[in-house]
Amino acid sequence: MGNNTSVKKANRLNFLSLATVSLLITFLALLVLTFLFVGNQKSNLIHSQLEDRATKFSIKMAETVRLSVENLQAASGIIVFFEDTRFEQFKGVSANYFKSDPGLIVIEWQPVVKSASRQQFELDAREKGLPDFYLWEPDEQGNPIPAKIRQEHIPVLYMAAKNSGANDVNTIGLDLAWSENRIESKHLARDTGRAQSSELFKVVTGKTNDYEPLGFAITLPVYKNGYIPDSQAGRQKNLMGYMAGVYSIEMLMQPQIKQLLQEGFNIDVFDHLNNENRLVMNAGVPSNFSTEIDMEFFGNTLKLKLTATKAYIDKQEQLSWTLLPGVLVLFGLLAFVFLFLLKIKNQRLRQIQTELLVSNEQLDKLSRRDPLTDLYNRRAFNSNLKHELERLERHEYAVALLMLDLDLFKNVNDRWGHSVGDEVLIAFAKNCRKACRKIDTIARLGGEEFAILLPETTSEDAMIFAERIRQQTELLQIPIADTTHFCTITVSVGISIISQPMSPDKLIEQADKALYVAKQKGRNRVETYQ
């Protein structure tokens, strides 16, 4: 009997030891798994927050610059339509645009001057209110010297600055042809007929470099009679000069930068071609969590890097995982509770992963959608167009591209304000969306310019579709708040039809030419590329 009792006790001790070891192993495994889970959860959450903040910053910057280009287009009218514009007149008109553009620090008129006309040009400038005018450029030390003789000069004739005082911006007379980077950007704007953004640079603010904010310039080509010629040769021949806006990034995005710094993010904005010129603003000691995205607008790509500070990371830990030690102790005491809570945690993990998937889908939508109309943006449209043309190489059918432009849309903004203009764009987008099939692609390319891609569509069907859009647009009536008035609008449409492989740029060029013909023939009409 004694031996049996000893055996029972030994078995009981062995069982207790095995249970203790099993519980200890289970607890250690749980401890490791929990820390891995928390680390993964924290990493996913913070990366998602970083990408969300960076995307919103990029969208806001693109929209702000787009609105400013519209202001530059309006400001160029004083040069095109009023001969012998004087310096004081230019400053008076420019003052209105500084109020609406937070980052705009300089507006410049930069005419094209041939070498043979340089002397007479300087004399004329002095007679128009600039008594000390001459063409200059900075030397290697940044000191002003007379501009070198060049075949073509692009001087700053008129300029207006947002601020005045000891550091007043003054680039009048600066020959921009001295800089290869700037002249390359201007020639690109001239040949394409579209606004172009420069690389980041320290803004030359005067003949003495007392104040050099980091910024960039938007260059807008200005042509005779205010129209953009069809051909590149015509654009080169009829170019009058350039209207340019110079921007400080810090001033342009001041509210967004302030918010990011307050939340605990370090900011780094730099040029993908020259990362020496960069805007760096730190909120604290950086952590290992960061994200980097591209910000594309008007032919240039800037990089935005956001880094979470350690203070931001600590704050997230305090909010999310305060009860972790207590939970771990409870898990170590009861194996059953451990298994139960592990199941709950796994369910929570799947829920978080689902939420992150939804968040990533939303971020992808933000990168491909126009925030105002919820249509595809230019980037998504170009991708769909390229895909459709690649499909055309494998199958024989017709593809139609429609370029649509709301007529005299600037008058809507000038008369009723940008809020009514936005309502017009939203209403027009809804009309187009109702008319389109599921296989069609509709996008807002920028401003009042839209595009619709119609796969498997003949010329006759495309004309019928475009005419229906035009007629429906005529019927739109946008009510004006607090009034009995309605805003109406019309649209001009250019169509290009192909059934053989063609480059996306060529197809867009053909549709653009047809649109130009529709505009020239009086607007509110549909034209097909011939």
Describe this entry's structure for a reader.
There is one protein chain. The protein is an alpha+beta fold. It has 16 helices and 21 strands. Helix 1 runs antiparallel to helix 10, helix 1 packs parallel to helix 11 and helix 10 packs antiparallel against helix 11. The N and C termini lie far apart (111 Å).
Layout of strands and helices, then pairs:
Elements: H1 2-75, H2 77-81, H3 87-100, E1 104-111, E2 113-114, H4 118-127, E3 136-138, E4 144-146, E5 152-153, E6 158-161, H5 180-192, E7 196-197, E8 201-202, E9 214-223, H6 232-237, E10 239-248, H7 249-252, H8 254-263, E11 265-271, E12 278-281, E13 286-297, E14 300-309, H9 310-320, H10 324-333, H11 335-368, H12 378-392, E15 399-406, H13 409-416, H14 418-435, E16 441-446, E17 449-455, H15 459-474, E18 478-479, E19 486-487, E20 491-498, H16 504-520, E21 526-528
Parallel strand pairs: 20-21
Antiparallel strand pairs: 1-6, 1-10, 2-5, 3-4, 7-9, 8-9, 9-10, 11-12, 11-14, 13-14, 15-17, 15-20, 16-17, 18-19
Helix pairs in contact: 1-3, 1-10, 1-11, 10-11, 13-14, 14-15
